[in-house]
């Protein structure tokens, strides 16, 4: 009878140990990798979504507004509509630039935080056989994201570097391997 209790107890203890070990593995290893991977996907999305921000279209719209004031052959209503349209375009460009600045800087800091949350990251990079970006490349990508948030006019060059550092193939294909 005592043999049955010992076997049952060891089985239950073994199950508890396996469950706790699985939870530790999930919470401290798998979830941080998943969060980092998800963030890298969001960064790829942002690089494409904000690629045209800071492309210098505002001066073009300002020039169009000046040209409208010089045209005498336009009807007052048409001129008013065109002026409103160009003013809306300028406001939207400015709004999107501000949004891009915030999002890219936030993603740069999140990238550093999520990478630092992964225990023994260097070991996992070696074991991934090049799938994971090295800590140095994560730092470089973060710096490039901050640079991009400060000056979006060089978005193609920076996006290419970020894609290289974070191993985002679809962005490399989009902007060229350069």
Encode the helix/strand succession as letters.
HHHHHHH
What is the number of helical segments per DSSP (H or I, 4+ residues)?
A: 7
Major pleated sheet: none
Instruction: Output the structural class.
Output: mainly alpha
Question: What shape does the CA trace take?
Answer: elongated
The residue fraction in helices comes out at: over 70%
Question: What is the straight-line distance between the termini?
Answer: 74 Å
Strand segment tally = 0
Strand content: under 5%
Mean pLDDT: 86
Summarize the structure.
The protein has 178 residues and is mostly helical. Helix content is 81%, strand content 0%. It has one domain.
Keywords:
mainly alpha; 178 residues; 7 helices; single chain
Structural overview:
With 178 residues, the protein is mainly alpha-helical. The chain is 81% helix and 0% strand. It has helices at residues 2-49, 57-70, 76-116, 121-127, 135-150, 155-166, 169-175. It is elongated, with a radius of gyration of 26 Å. It starts with a helix and ends with a helix.
What is the topology?
Elements (H helix, E strand, L loop, with lengths): L1 H48 L7 H14 L5 H41 L4 H7 L7 H16 L4 H12 L2 H7 L3
Helix pairs in contact: 1-3, 2-3, 3-5, 5-6, 6-7
């Amino acid at each position: 009878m005592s043999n049955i209790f010992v076997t049952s107890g060891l089985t239950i203890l073994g199950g508890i140990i396996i469950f706790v070990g699985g939870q530790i593995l999930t919470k401290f290893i798998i979830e941080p990798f998943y969060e980092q991977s998800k963030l890298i996907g969001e960064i790829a999305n942002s690089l494409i979504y904000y690629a045209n921000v800071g492309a210098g279209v505002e001066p073009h719209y300002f020039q169009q507004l000046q040209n409208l004031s010089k045209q005498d052959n336009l009807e007052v209503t048409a001129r008013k509509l065109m002026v409103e349209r160009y003013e809306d375009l300028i406001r939207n460009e400015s709004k999107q630039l501000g949004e891009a600045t915030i999002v890219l800087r936030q993603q740069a800091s999140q990238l550093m935080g999520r990478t630092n949350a992964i225990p023994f990251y260097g070991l996992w990079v070696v074991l991934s056989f090049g799938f994971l970006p090295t800590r140095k490349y994560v730092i470089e990508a973060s710096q490039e994201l901050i640079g991009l948030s400060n000056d979006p006019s060089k978005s193609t060059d920076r996006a290419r570097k970020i894609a290289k550092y974070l191993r985002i193939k679809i962005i490399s294909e989009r902007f060229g391997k350069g």
